[in-house]
Design brief:
- This protein is an alpha+beta fold.
- It has one domain.
- Helix content is 27%, strand content 14%.
- It is built from three helices and four strands.
- The longest helix is centred in the first third of the chain and has 13 residues, at 2-14.
Length: 113
């Protein structure tokens, strides 16, 4: 992780093309993002991204395969909106959330959610 963090910081500090883009245009964000906070015990909460301006987020898009994953649907929407412990999610999501937090980023978009 330290290597990755160092490279990201070097990139942002020394490369104009790697600076964080301004995304304050309509449609620049997905409709929903998961707020994961910065602490390992922070709840994972679904949030509407329509009011976002320059929040940074990471993406997880992956092959779902034949396994039925935890997905956003009418049954899980309220649970995610209220916030849940990341340990309730599949291991792939937990790992992505862990990396997101370590990068100091509070939001993640996961394609099935």
């Amino acid at each position: 992780m330290n290597f990755v963090l160092d490279k990201i910081e070097d990139c942002r500090s020394n490369h104009v093309s790697c600076e964080l883009p301004k995304r304050n245009l309509a449609g620049a964000y997905p409709a929903r993002l998961l707020h994961v906070g910065t602490g390992q015990d922070s709840p994972v909460r679904l949030c509407d991204a329509s009011l976002f301006c320059d929040e940074e987020y990471v993406c997880l898009s992956h092959c779902w395969g034949d396994v039925r994953l935890f997905m956003l649907n009418s049954e899980t929407h309220s649970m995610l909106a209220e916030g849940l412990d990341s340990t309730m999610l599949p291991r792939t999501y937990q790992d992505a959330i862990y990396v997101t937090r370590r990068l100091g980023i509070e939001y993640i978009w996961i394609d099935s959610m």
